[in-house]
């Protein structure tokens, strides 16, 4: 008879959170040798042979299939075999972004223990803070709530980046704000915020110097995307000067600490100036998609126009 716990289905693009659960699950299964076949080269017949073969000695097996949905024919076959997996096998299916419209996905929802791991967004800041504090406690790192908020401000809410930051903090003897800032690599969005801040102050020379540095490590399209996002956040504040950053953050799903940093600039901007900057950004976006020009030159042009608004 089918045992529901034979199959586990872990899906979602938050690979770090997914990996933590997979590690715990493999420990719970307790099988010494884990089978991890290459799903990209797998044939349908191999899938059937692998999952329906009964061991003469009732030997427990654990099979991890990662990225199976990229192999269309085998993924479709998985939908047909899910309900008949041999009871001496623990099958763990791991997927980044499976198509929820497929028969196999719907079948696994019926026959497997499922858990989804979506990427955390700014709306998940409280969840990320809670996780970071708990993870720090488990590693004997005396991280306070204010420290966790500072870490998230520096690296964002990506769980893998938070884990990496925590590894660095384990080496810090005293967790002061200065020590935390010195130990952790800044999130690209933080660097872009500093760039926008410099432009809003009208400092053309510093803007150009910062761009020289960013060119070495960042992608121009990514920088422009982050810059556009921050301009929209600035606009939300500039058009609602009487509303608190916290309330605006709830409206647009942005981190409150980012809007708090932007608010002084928003307070000094007129709606006309803000609209003009948004139009400049829209024009840059159009050029990036239609004109064969170095995108860094377009980013620089936009920022210089903001400094001279």
In short:
The chain is α/β, with parallel strands linked by helices and 309 residues long. It has helices at residues 15-29, 44-52, 72-81, 103-111, 125-138, 145-155, 159-169, 177-183, 188-200, 204-217, 220-238, 245-252, 256-268, 271-290, 295-307, and strands spanning 7-11, 34-35, 61-66, 89-95, 113-116.
Please describe what this structure looks like.
There is one protein chain. By secondary structure, the chain is of the alpha/beta class. 60% of the residues lie in helices and 8% in strands. The chain is built from 15 helices and five strands. A five-stranded parallel sheet has the order 2-3-4-1-5, with helices on both faces. Helix 3 links the parallel strand 3 and strand 4. The longest helix has 20 residues, at 271-290. It is elongated.
Looking at this protein, list some descriptive labels.
single chain; 309 residues; alpha/beta; 15 helices; elongated
Secondary structure category: alpha/beta
Shape: elongated
Compute the number of strand runs.
5
Q: Sketch the major β-sheet.
A: 5 strands, parallel
Poorly predicted runs of 5 or more residues: none
- Order of strands across the widest beta sheet? 2-3-4-1-5
Mean pLDDT: 88
Tell me the β content: 5-15%
Counted by DSSP, the helix tally is 15
Order of helices and strands: EHEHEHEHEHHHHHHHHHHH
Q: Give the fraction of residues assigned to helices.
A: 55-70%
Query: End-to-end distance, in Å?
Result: 72 Å
Tell me the radius of gyration: 25 Å
